[in-house]
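dumping the sequnces here before i forget
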Amino acid sequence: MAVISRADFERGRTRRKWTGRVFHGLCLLSVAIALGMLAVLLLYLLIQGATRIDWGFLTSFASRHPDQAGIKAGMLGSIYVVMVAGVVAFTLGVATALYLEEYAARSKFARIAKINIANLAGVPSIVYGMLGLEIFVRNLSMGKSVLAGGFTLALLVLPIVIVAASEAVRAVPPSLREGSYALGATRWQVVWHMVIPQAFPGIMTGVILAVSRAIGETAPLIAMGALTYVPFTPDSPFSQFTVLPIQIFNWTSKSQEGFQEAAAAGIIVLLAILLVMNVGAVFLRNRFQKEWEG
Amino acid sequence: MQDLDAILQTRGLSVYYDTKKVVTDVNLDVARNRITAIIGPSGCGKSTLLRCFNRMNDLIPSARVEGQVLFDGRDLYSHDVDPTEIRYLIGMVFQRPNPFPKSIYDNVAFGPRINGFKGDVAELVERSLRRAALWDEVKDRLKASALSLSGGQQQRLCIARALAVEPRVILMDEPCSALDPIATLAIEELMRELSEDYSIIIVTHNMQQAARVSNYTAFLMVEEARVGFLVEFGESRQIFTNPEDERTEAYITGRFG
Amino acid sequence: MVRADFDRSLEELQAELVGLSEMVERAIVKSMDALERRDLAVAYEVVDEDDLIDEKRFDLEEKCINLIATQQPLAIDLRTLLAVLHIAVELERMGDYAEGIGKICLIIGDAIPVAMPKEFSRMAQIGLEMLRGSMKSLVERDTALANDVWDSDDEVDALYDGVCRQTFLDMVQHPNTIEADTHFLWVAHDLERIADRATNIAERVIFLVTGKVGRYEGQSDEE
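..and the predicted 3d for all of it:
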C-alpha cells in the first residue's frame, strides 16, 4: 500500500525543516539590515546635531552665521502648512471615500475614479508643485502663501487618504449597516452614526500616513513658491513661508561645518515634530475608539 | 386562509434580482400576535420573502418586487411609503447576532435616538431589556461593551434593540442558528412571551424548532427553474402531524431527495 | 436516499409486528383446537407460550420508544410509530385472551362431556379473519380493508348475543351443567373481545393513513 517509503518520508522532513530555518534566518537578516541602517542613520544624526539644539536654535531665524542660525521660520512654516494640508486632505479624502464606497458603490463612475486615484499616488510630486502654482497661487490668487502650500500638499497626499479611508469604510461589516437600517435609520444616519465612527481608526491611519508624507516634501513647495530665506514667522494664512526640509536642504548645500551641524539638528527637530504629530493622531484614534466602543 | 386575523398579507408577491425571478406569486397571511414560521430547503427564498416585509430588499440595487405587501391593509410598496418609516414598525433580528460595537446601553438606545425619541431614554432601555429577558443579567454593567456578552445574550440584546423602537411585528431570520441549544431554548421561550404583544415571523431551517415554537407554518419550495413558491400554509399542529401536500410531508420527514 | 437507516428500522419494526400477529394467530388456533378436542397438553403449551408473546410486545415497545427519541419523527413517521406501539398492545391483549381460553380448557379438563357451542368455531374463524385482515390493511396501508374489518365485527357481536342467550337458557334448563356453561360464557367473551381488538387495530391503521384520531364512525371508501 505504501507508495512512499519510510526513508523518502524522513528525508523530505529533514530537508523541509532546514529550508524553514534558512528562510527564518534570511528574514531576520533583512530585519537586521533595515533596522540597522535606520539605527545608524539616527545615531549619525544625533551625534552630529544633538548638541546644536537649544532654545536659541528653536527661536532664531536663519542667518549667514552658522552659530546664529535657527529654524524658527521653517518649523512654524512646516507646522502651519501641514495643518492646512491635513485638514483639507482629511475633509476631501473622507468625503470622496464615502461617496465612492457608500453612495456610488457599484457604479461605473466609481470604478473608473478608483483606478485613477490609485494612479495619482504615483505621480511625481513636482507635478503637484506646478499644479499648485498655476491653480492656487495664480488662478485662485492665494499668492505664494501658507494656504496655497497647504492646498498643494493636500492634493499630493489626497490619494493616500482616499485609499486608506476607502479601505476603512469598506471594512465596516455589512451586518452593522443592516442592523442600523433595520432600526429605521436613513442612509445619512447610517453613514454618520455607524460607518464613520467604525471606520475612524482606519481613516486616522490614512491621515497619519498623509501627514508623514507631507511634512517631508520639498520640491513641490519650492515649485509653487516657498521661500528659502525667511526672516519672519507666517502671521496669516496668506503670508509667505518656508518649511523645514527647504531650510535643511539649504544648509546642507553650504560649505561651512557649522551649517552641517545645523542641518542635522534641523532633521532631528523635523523627526521630533513628525513623532509628536503621529503620537497625537494615534492618541486621538485610540481615544475615539474607546469612546465609540463604550 | 379565512378567518385569520392577519396583520400582514402578501398578494401575488414576486421578487426578482435583475431579470431572474427568485420568488413567485406568494399569497401569505401573517396572524396578529402569533408566531408564523417559514420553512423550506436552502435557496427557496425564505429569507428573501422575509425581507420583503420590512423592505430590506430595497438595499439591494438589483432587487425588484412585484405584487403587494399589506400591513393592516396598507400596501407597503406603494409610492408614498418611506421605507425607513416601516422599519421601526416591523423590526428585524438577524441570523448572526450583530450588536453594535458600543455599550449595551447605547445599543438599545440607538434606535430610539435616531428616530428622534425625546423621552426618558434610560427608562426605555430598561423596559426593552426587561422585555427581552436580559435586564437582570446586565443591569449592573450597562456601560460595558455589548461584545463582551455571550452569543445568546447578544441575540437577546438585538431583540431588545428592536423592541426599543416599539414595533408591531418582529421578523427573525434564523435567529438561533448561531447559538448553542440552551441559548436557543431561551430565545424560543422569549418568543412565546413576546408573541402576546407582537406578531412574529421566524424563518428557520430547524423543523423541530418550527414545530415547537410556531402557531402557523408556511412551507416554501424551489422547483427546477430555481424559483421559490409557497406549497402549503396552515396551523403548525396540522402541518407537522398530517400535512395536506405530499411535498410538505416529504420535506418535514427529511425524505427530500 | 436520505434516512435510509430510519426507513430500514421502520420496515424491520413492521415485519416484527407482523411476526407478533402471527404468533397471536397461532395461539388462537391452538387454544380453540385444544378446547374442541379437550387436549390438555396443547392447552398447556398455549398458556406457556403467552410469555413469548408478552416479551415480543415489550421488545417492540422499546424499539418504538427508541426510534421516537432518536429520530424526531414527524407526520407519517410519527403516526406510524404510534400506530405500531398501539397495535402491539392490542395484539398482546389478544394473546392474553387466547391464553384465557387455554386456561379454561385446563379447568374444564377432559372429564366433562359437554360439547362447546357450535357458534364458537365460527366466532373464532371470523376473529382470525379480522386479525389477518387488519394486519394486511396495515401492511398495504389500505383503509378500505380496514373498514371491512370493522364491518365484520357485527357478525361476531350477533353470534355472541346468540351464544349468551342460548347458554343462559341452558343454565336454567340443565342446572347440572352450570359450571361448564359458565366457563363457556367466558370463552364466548374472550372470542368477542378478540374480534373487538381486531377492530381497534383497524382503527389504528386508519389513523396512520389519514391522521384522524377518534372513534371510527363507520365509513366508506375514503382514502
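Chain A is about 75% helix and 0% strand.
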